[in-house]
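Example record

One chain of 361 residues, shown exactly as stored in the release files.
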Amino acid sequence: MFNNFVRSQTTIIGKIALFVIPGFLVSTTLISCTSTVSNTNTGTDPKADPAGAKTITFKTKVLRIGYQSSGDLVRVTRVLEKRLEPLGVKVEWAQFAQGPQLMEAMNVDKIDIGSVGETPPIFAQAAGARIVYLAGRRITATSGKGSAIAVPKGSPIKTLADIKGQKVVFQKGSASHYFIIKALEEVGLKYSDIKVLSMPNVEARGAFIQGTIPVWVTGDPHLALVEKLHGARVLRDATNIGTPGGYYVGTRQFAKENPELLRIILEEIDKNGQWAEANRKEVAKLIAPVLKIDLPIQEIISGRANYRLKGITPELMKAQQSVADLFYKEKILPKKIDVQEALLTPKEYAAITPPTLISEK
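Predicted structure tokens for this chain:
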């Protein structure tokens, strides 16, 4: 049985949300957040959309969007603020260590939408969160290059098979959790063949550099930093790992009450992504000072990142169901999860999905 509870802590949002799953405890810590504005407006506010030249009615006055400590190009470019603020919608950003922490904050109504990997929504759904998939991330030739199973410079571990019996560090419930299981399968190992220690990337990087973590499953920007500055060796990156990819996820209530707003949001995010994939060096120049990363390293990170979105389809959700089934098979989840329960209706998806997301190229 899953238990959800919230305990008091002096943070910006004033709380830490905890999901307790038998044998699995994940702490949700909000790293930073803009000033909180209550999202309780229930009136309607017609505004003229300057891009669409039509009148749109929004239920909310505030969009609360979560992003991860690895950074977010949409936040840096302020494309949502530029589009939404003239329509009377304020954008507030909240930063989280990784996807599981973001999803837990969504479950306790601290944010409306956010971008995560394929795994966090499954654990959130298992814990009873009322979430829905809004859009997927497009898989490209660079997909997976920014995630890897790494060992320190000079490690005696030479191949992926050598990690049997080793302590392996990653954030449980994150995309790395799925990645390590699939990678172990390739070399004939089981999840039970490794000693798992759950730790967010922001905490694990220092320990890895000091040599106290023998195997680390991580992603950019942490991966690029330890590769280029500390000589970390990659045993396997996540290319061709068979993932359906990441998602934008939202609360069911927000999605149902704000379809017109969501359509604009997804349109702007994908438009920004299209620009980013055609201008990766410019992206690096924007992100590097925000993350305080040297430009040459950020260019590597931006060069292998995916920025564009794709619509939710039956095929995509079939792939997502296979991820959920794998966690159940490995006895990491104590019950089967039906991802269909985290979907909108076809009519609702038609209302929120811009034409550019319908067919993936």
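Notes: Residues 259-278 form the longest helix (20 residues).
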